Amino acid sequence: MGGREGERAGAVSVSTYLENVARDRILCVLPFSFDAGYSQLTTAFHAGACAVLMNYLLPNDVVKTVARERITGIGGVPPLWNQLAGLDWPDEAKASMRYFTNTGGHMPRATLDRLRASLPNAKPYLMYGLMEAFRSTYLPPEEVENRPDSMGKAIPNAEIVVVNDKGEVCGPDEPGELVHRGALVSLGYWNDPERTAERFKPAPGQLAGLPVTEYAVWSGDTVRKDAEGFLYFVGRRDEMIKSSGYRISPTELEEVVYSSGAVGEAVALGLPHPTIGQGIVIVATPPVGGALDAEAVLAACREALPQFMVPHAVVERASLDRNPNGKIDRKKLGEELAGFFEEDS
Description:
Mean pLDDT: 90
Order of helices and strands: HEHEHEHHEHEEEEEHEEEEEHEEHEHH
CATH topology of the largest domain: Rossmann fold
Largest sheet: 7 strands, mixed
Radius of gyration: 21 Å
Number of strands: 17
Strand order of the largest sheet: 2-1-3-4-5-6-7
Low-confidence stretches: none
């Protein structure tokens, strides 16, 4: 769906599960060029709520604005939440905050736990979305304690199907590609029919003989669905690390790295290696007020992961590059470090 009707359908869906009302005051820190940022604006309009616009310089500015403006809801991406989780939130912010949302990548468990402790009255909504189909899934706050690593289930007016390489719907816990069908799927990429044909394909499970083919967006993301229907992110197909014949999820690696408490921010990369395909490198910043402990990171990985998933190196950076949406720029980091193992050999 495109145009105004698509925007309205998205706003109705999101405001329904976030329970937005006219008294909400939503802090908009994500750029409007990012679908999640624009969604906050349309959701506020639909609910008659107040959208407070902010172009912040420092993370602490966000916390101060929440307290000053009596903000009830914020949407952010993991790199921002990683920074905000380590700050002291004033009582005014704790009192006003009703919910916070995460999108644009997996929120580390350690970050989520710190945020829940800092904002005890705020419900966490962990979400997953596609640029091509607005929002796809959310995890209800009451499920966070039981399954904090889940993406949840489909949002209202969407259906999420997990499909294997044969085009068949996957069974419980079988990894496959996430396919999003329903009212929120866009019409394709503007003036790019070749790329549109790659991502927008017939929806799985259609009845034969329909006069009009229904198209869905095939995300390129690998996920699995458990027996109760909850989805879990495995990784993007173009970001999966291929080392010593194994396919390794960067998200799973990063979760262990964050749990060590030895880093500020971190990203797991697969870099060209002369003998094993790709070597695993963790690029990380020091924790706030501390020093990066590379050995503690590796020790945590050895304890929690099989040997083939243990990183080969930890690289320290003062900060990690961001793309315009505020996400860590994996591609740029990978390009900068492409010769890491060749130089080491």
